[in-house]
Amino acid sequence: MPVISQPTTALASRSVLFTAPFGQGGFRLDTSAIAGIFGGQTVVSAMATLPFHKGARWVGLYNSPGSYETAKIFGKLSRSTFFDGLFPSDHTNPATLFGLDGRVGPKFRAAHSGTVIDETGHMAALLMKKCSALNSVAVEGRETSPVNVTIAELHHIPDDKYRVQFSTLAPWFAFFPIVVSVGACVGCFLVKDWYSASMVLLGIVASAISCFVVGSGTVFFTHPQTARGSPRGDGILVSDNEIVVLRGAEGAVNSITRGRFSLQFDSEPHYEKIGWCSFLLMFQFIAQLLLIPQGTLFGQIMFITSLAFSWGYNLWLSAFDQDEIQRNILMKNVLRQPQLTKYGLPNRTSMAVFVLLILKATEVEKVMDYLLPNDTNAWRKWKDVVVSRIITQKDFDFVQGDWDNDNFTKDDRDLLKALFEDARDGYEGFKKCPPASH
User: pLDDT by residue (tens digit) across 69-127?
Assistant: First the structure.
């Protein structure tokens, strides 16, 4: 019988692959619970950008953290008895869940149709935020409560339903967490740490499927059709210290006051595919909770490393200002770069005159009362004179007789004199404005 040498016996007893580093120690990292909970909101914020980017649904091949939190958030969309029992919560719609809808905008008052909207929507809120960040041209006058007025020339009428999509390199930086996750999986396989290898692989598969399903959604911008024969849509968006004058056709203006983003999936209205993604993510969390502690220290370090790179990528992607992205889409893609010009008025009185001259409203008195609800004798006198000048398109060279009246007290006369000076300041500011584009 042949004698087997000792070196041959030693080689046979060793792994045919590699020996795991740190394999002789008894230390273990219990990271499974943290992996499932930590970073879930960051993952959802990052995934919210996927439907906007062409091809971004293909770049989710990395072991992403936060599977438990992500499953709970996505579970709010699915509508079935099974998923309602698995993820009990109030249902929502995709646009609201991903921050594409749901904001309350400022009040709107139409200049010609008399329409009043107490609460506009997401588009008006985005435009108001955009205008508030602009630099203004100062209008001189008596400064009390300054108000900014932005004139928005809306020259483009968007389609009733417009698909929103653009190209960017941001999602393709997922190459780095993909390489790290695949490398961690291969490394665990080479040292025969099947537990860690399978959990990294499960994380890659779950993330890839979730990104594909969410990224397959289509973002649309929609707004109501305009009735034939509708007057121009000119009007004002009003907040405390910011006013936006909208000038344009009814279809262009209602894209701001009534337009909205929507996110549509082929599995509507029950969103079964998103529900199964939530189920898979929950299964991932439970599996990692049970099996990662059974892996080697090397495998656990590989697992944490893949999560760290994925979390860093998701954090970087979610750090992009989502509101800024949506504002750019609204301005560039939907409204086709409207002209925005901002003026800083020194007080609300000059602001009202400035706005009314810009609007050329049909019912000047009603718009005046909407902007300045003051209703004393002095104010009524001032409104009558100013409204008359606006309607007849006369100049704003007031004389002493406009305010020096025995029917008013000295305080009223002093107030009227100051108000007429404010009106003059508003008129001077109006003369600086470029003519309206029709």
Answer: 888 888 888 888 888 888 877 778 888 888 889 899 999 999 988 889 999 999 999 99
Q: What SS3 class is residue 163?
A: strand
Task: Indicate the pLDDT class of residue 35, thresholds 50, 70 and 90.
Answer: low
Q: Are strands 107-110 and 116-117 parallel, antiparallel or unpaired?
A: antiparallel
In three state form, how does the secondary structure of 233-276 look? CCEEEECCCEEEEEEECHHHHHHHHCCEEEEECCCCCCCHHHHH
Residue 37 has pLDDT above 70, yes or no: no
φ, ψ for residue 404, nearest 5 deg = -90, 85
The pair of three-digit structure tokens given for residue 14, joined into one six-digit string: 């060793």
| CA distance linking residue 279 with residue 284, whole number of Å | 9
Distances (CA, A) of 61 to 163, 209, 306, 343, 414: 27, 8, 11, 50, 73
Cα 319-320-321 angle, rounded to 5 deg: 110
AA letter at 152: A
Specify the 3-state DSSP secondary structure of 36: helix
Write out the two tokens for 107. 């009040």
Report the alpha-carbon distance of residue 273 to residue 379 in Å, rounded.
62
Phi and psi at 64, nearest 5°, equal: -95, 140
DSSP symbols for 54-120: TTGGG---S--S-HHHHHHHHTTT--SHHHHHHS-S----HHHHTTSS-----EEEESSS--EESS-
Beta bridge partners of 339: 153
Residue 419's SS3 state is helix
Stated pTM of the model: 0.83
Per residue in 328-381, pLDDT tens? 999 998 999 999 999 999 999 999 999 999 998 888 999 999 999 998 888 999
